[in-house]
Amino acid sequence: MTYPIHEKAALGFDNASESYERGRPEYPAAAVDFLIDKLSITTGKTVVDVGAGTGKFTRLLRRTGARIIALEPVEGMRRKFSALFPDMETLEGSAEHIPLPDGSVDVLTVAQAFHWFRGEEALAEFHRVLRPGGGLGLIWNRRDESVDWVARVSEIFERYEGDTPRYKSGAWKRPFAATRLFAPLRHTEFAFSQAGTIETVVDRVASVSFIAALPAETRAHVLEEVRALVREHPATRDKAVIEIPYCTDLFITESI
Q: What percent of the chain has pLDDT over 90?
């Protein structure tokens, strides 16, 4: 079955699974522990990670002893996930079309992805598959653009953003404000940094959907601009290890 998703996500993420795995940061342990605790993810529970990608977040839930299912619509991402974690359960599907029975899931998690979904449809589908009172956790790592060199990297690649859905726009929150299916979102923030190199920063930009979807020549030009900036900026110049600052935004709610 073909699951309709945004064209930039379909093309960009199918192309970018390798860059995504190399360049995207992990999630801070404090945020993951907080989510696991608040959503009571334990042995015997069924958890579906929606839009699992290469498993950057999904893998962190394995230690709970719960049944973890990775749900991902993009073939390239599923293929990379399965290569990395052949023992983990994967399903082809999307937020709006989850191939599981009504009331069969205890917890849904969404990492770095809800802004891609058709929000009202996704919440209706989430509510369908969740058991009464089931938990929903949304998590995003966002680059800390209060740091000058990070903000300047964003300026380079955001020229190509167009109408691509972005977390930072906040538009993804509107369905939550209107829904009667879920309790109000509760927000917690965590700060952390990713240790990497110039090429880690380049891979992070290469993993952005609308950059990965560019023609090869244009994409190469953008990535070389990023590489040059990080090579020359006073905060990162001549550093073998670069600390890449992030903030993690975690939102939790329950079905009602």
A: 88
Task: Specify the pLDDT at position 15.
Answer: 57
Strand 46-50 relative to strand 67-71, pairing: parallel
Q: What residue spans define the domains of the chain?
A: 7-144+165-193+245-254
Residue 242 near residue 201, CB atoms below 8 Å: yes
Domain boundaries 7-144+165-193+245-254, corresponding CATH code: 3.40.50.150
Rounded mean pLDDT of 43-70? 97
State yes or no: pLDDT of 115 exceeds 70.
yes
* Mean pLDDT (whole number) for 117-135: 97
CA distance 113 to 108: 12
pTM above 0.85, yes or no: yes
How deeply is 193 buried, as exposed, middle or buried, from its count of CB atoms within 10 A (0-12, 13-18, 19+)? middle
For residue 132, the tally of other CB atoms under 10 A from its CB is 9
CA distance 125 to 97: 7
Backbone φ and ψ for 170, nearest 5 degrees, come out as 80, -5
Tell me the C-alpha distance between 72 and 17, whole Å.
Answer: 12
